[in-house]
């Protein structure tokens, strides 16, 4: 690792990183001291429902494009090829359905927390379970998002790990607590631009240092890195067109359809049309974000494949490898490595600030307000700020605890979304698309979805076949190396990842179930909720019918509260 120690920052790099933190802080202060000065919950939590579609759409991207994608996707492309790029196909339905099904319902109900819908449609217990599930998912996801950039950075540049986590966490907590959703949205806009700029810089320099686009293309296609469509129907293969293009739709719906952080952005739009437009505008930017991270992986492959660059680095994890590549590319260009570090922390900041704000919103709206009806709005706003601040500190504590860093942070993030976001998507779908589903069905359904999620998720971790052995495309990169007779440490590592040592016998029975690709978790868990929810709804309705028939009662559909029913039918 000694070769890395020499990668340190020049003063200008630190200045650029400090500028990023300072400007985020400045935006937070600006919104704390302007407009309504964050004195009402409407302003603090919903930006006075005054936002236009452009900032909302960039903020929607920033919320679920964290350092995990910036570091994890290039590592995935480098190791397995561009199969992952097919997740872009899931963005079509993954944004179209939220725009025309979920947004109209939530917007017309004038909600603050998306879980209010669950009380209107079902009952209060369903709402509380939804809120608690969301809080659990977001706190874990936040910890991964804070820790990823700091860990990768520390490993490659010796940049002080906890100093970075602390600086990021505190600045983020401050501007989120002071400036509310307006500050979070506008810092997201700024940070998304920094994110794109940083990735572009690495790509441009990388291509130039690899000898131009044609050279990169030659190396990449020789290295068999451009994957065609993999139509393998085997659900245990990590990334195929089906797991990404179809499984990915359910992942997108759980994020862009029913996740509080995203719905809160839709609700902050000044008109329903702006909300729908912001969802449409996410599509091109999300494709750009995906393209940038995939191309970065390809350039990294072209740059290093066949060289003994990693000779003394065999132990690097995939995430650190990406940072090594970036520092190697930008090393001689003062300011650019600072730009990329800012890109990495922008990705993290924009995700965790959205998380703090949405956690404070649902805690206030769903868990506190219902028990303190007489609370004045001024006090509620103050309490919301206190909540945002405490969630910020909790996130820092979680980051300190998070040594769970699996080799692929991308997989960890997908598992969190699939295991927890999937059941939430299921319970909302039950409410929106099945008028005869009742709250007992919803509760039992949500519980079964979470049980299924943890059964598969924990099972896959325990049997360490998480997502199955990816069908790694054999590539000539090692052939190039072998012919060049340079078998480097990384080359050996690549060989081990590329060709599983033991001939992998197809898992059977439960083992096969545990090796289900995590890209199917959202679909599996949401279907579990819907099916269980419908069965239990029919059973309870049937029993209810029997009892009321004896006493001459009414139609079980009256268990649908008028507002919930009205909302569903009105959007038909
Ligand atoms: O970057 C992260 O923090 C999580 C990984 C990406 C989450 C999903 S993948 C599909 C969609 N596209 C994104 O850029 N983020 C979400
Ligand atoms: Na982000």
UniProtKB/TrEMBL annotation:
GO cellular component, one term: apical plasma membrane
Membrane topology: Multi-pass membrane protein
Biological processes, Gene Ontology terms: inorganic ion transmembrane transport; pantothenate transmembrane transport; sodium ion transport
Keyword match Transmembrane helix: yes
Name of a matching Pfam family: SSF
Keywords: Biotin, Cell membrane, Glycoprotein, Ion transport, Membrane, Sodium, Sodium transport, Symport, Transmembrane, Transmembrane helix, Transport
Catalytic activity field: (R)-lipoate(out) + 2 Na(+)(out) = (R)-lipoate(in) + 2 Na(+)(in); iodide(out) + 2 Na(+)(out) = iodide(in) + 2 Na(+)(in); (R)-pantothenate(out) + 2 Na(+)(out) = (R)-pantothenate(in) + 2 Na(+)(in); biotin(out) + 2 Na(+)(out) = biotin(in) + 2 Na(+)(in)
GO MF term set: monoatomic ion transmembrane transporter activity; symporter activity; vitamin transmembrane transporter activity
Compartment annotation: Apical cell membrane
Regions that span the bilayer: 12-33, 53-73, 85-107, 128-149, 161-181, 193-211, 239-258, 279-302, 322-349, 382-401, 413-434, 441-462, 518-544
The protein's role, per its UniProt record: Sodium-dependent multivitamin transporter that mediates the electrogenic transport of pantothenate, biotin, lipoate and iodide. Functions as a Na(+)-coupled substrate symporter where the stoichiometry of Na(+):substrate is 2:1, creating an electrochemical Na(+) gradient used as driving force for substrate uptake. Required for biotin and pantothenate uptake in the intestine across the brush border membrane. Plays a role in the maintenance of intestinal mucosa integrity, by providing the gut mucosa with biotin.
Subunit description: Interacts with PDZD11.
Family under the similarity heading: Belongs to the sodium:solute symporter (SSF) (TC 2.A.21) family.
Protein name: Sodium-dependent multivitamin transporter
Species, as recorded: Salvelinus namaycush
Gene that this sequence comes from: slc5a6b
């Amino acid at each position: 690792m000694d070769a890395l120690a020499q990668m340190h920052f020049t003063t200008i790099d630190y200045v650029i990183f400090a500028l990023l933190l300072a400007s985020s802080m400045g935006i937070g202060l600006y919104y704390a001291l302007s407009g309504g000065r964050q004195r009402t919950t409407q302003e603090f939590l919903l930006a006075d429902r005054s936002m236009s579609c452009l900032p909302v759409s960039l903020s929607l991207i920033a919320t679920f494009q964290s350092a995990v994608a910036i570091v994890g996707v290039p590592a995935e492309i480098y190791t397995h090829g561009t199969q992952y790029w097919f997740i872009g196909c899931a963005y079509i339905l993954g944004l179209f359905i939220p725009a025309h099904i979920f947004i109209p319902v939530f917007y017309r109900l004038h909600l603050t927390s998306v879980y209010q819908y669950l009380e209107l449609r079902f009952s209060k217990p369903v709402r509380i379970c939804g809120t608690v599930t969301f809080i659990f998912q977001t706190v874990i996801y936040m910890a991964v998002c804070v820790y990823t950039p700091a860990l990768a950075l520390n490993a490659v540049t010796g940049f002080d790990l906890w100093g970075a986590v602390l600086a990021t966490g505190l600045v983020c907590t401050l501007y989120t607590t002071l400036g509310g959703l307006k500050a979070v949205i506008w810092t997201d806009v700024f940070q998304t631009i920094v994110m794109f700029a940083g990735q572009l810089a690495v790509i441009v320099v990388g291509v130039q240092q690899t000898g131009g686009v044609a050279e990169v293309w030659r190396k990449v296609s020789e290295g068999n890195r451009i994957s065609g469509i993999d139509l393998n129907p085997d659900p245990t293969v990590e990334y195929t067109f089906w797991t990404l293009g179809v499984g990915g739709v359910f992942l997108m719906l759980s994020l862009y359809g029913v996740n509080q952080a995203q719905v809160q952005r839709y609700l902050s739009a000044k008109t329903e049309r702006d909300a729908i437009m912001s969802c449409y505008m996410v599509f091109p930017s999300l494709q750009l974000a995906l393209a940038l991270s995939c191309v970065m992986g390809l350039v990294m492959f072209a740059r290093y494949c066949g060289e003994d660059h990693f000779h003394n680095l065999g132990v690097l994890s995939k995430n650190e490898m990406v940072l090594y590549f970036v520092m190697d590319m930008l090393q001689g260009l003062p300011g650019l490595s600072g730009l990329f570090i800012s890109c990495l922390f922008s990705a993290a900041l924009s995700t965790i600030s959205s998380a703090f704000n949405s956690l404070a919103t649902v805690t206030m709206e769903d868990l506190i307000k219902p028990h303190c009806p007489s609370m004045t709005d001024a006090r509620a706003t103050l309490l919301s700020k206190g909540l945002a601040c405490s969630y910020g500190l909790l996130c820092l504590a979680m980051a300190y605890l998070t040594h769970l860093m699996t080799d692929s942070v991308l997989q960890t993030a997908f598992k969190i979304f699939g295991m927890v976001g999937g059941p939430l998507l299921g319970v909302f779908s039950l409410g929106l698309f099945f008028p005869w589903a009742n709250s007992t069905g919803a509760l039992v359904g949500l519980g079964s979805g979470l049980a299924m999620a943890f059964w598969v998720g924990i099972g896959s971790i325990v049997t360490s076949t998480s997502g199955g052995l990816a069908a790694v495309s054999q590539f000539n990169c090692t052939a190039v190396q072998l012919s060049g007779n340079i078998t480097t440490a990384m080359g050996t590592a690549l060989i081990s990842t590329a060709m599983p040592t033991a001939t992998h016998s197809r898992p059977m029975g439960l083992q096969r179930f545990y090796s289900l690709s995590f890209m199917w978790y959202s679909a599996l868990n949401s279907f579990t909720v819907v099916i269980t929810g419908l069965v239990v709804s029919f059973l309870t309705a049937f029993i209810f019918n029997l009892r009321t028939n004896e006493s001459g009662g009414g139609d079980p559909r009256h268990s649908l509260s008028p507002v919930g029913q009205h909302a569903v039918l009105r959007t038909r």
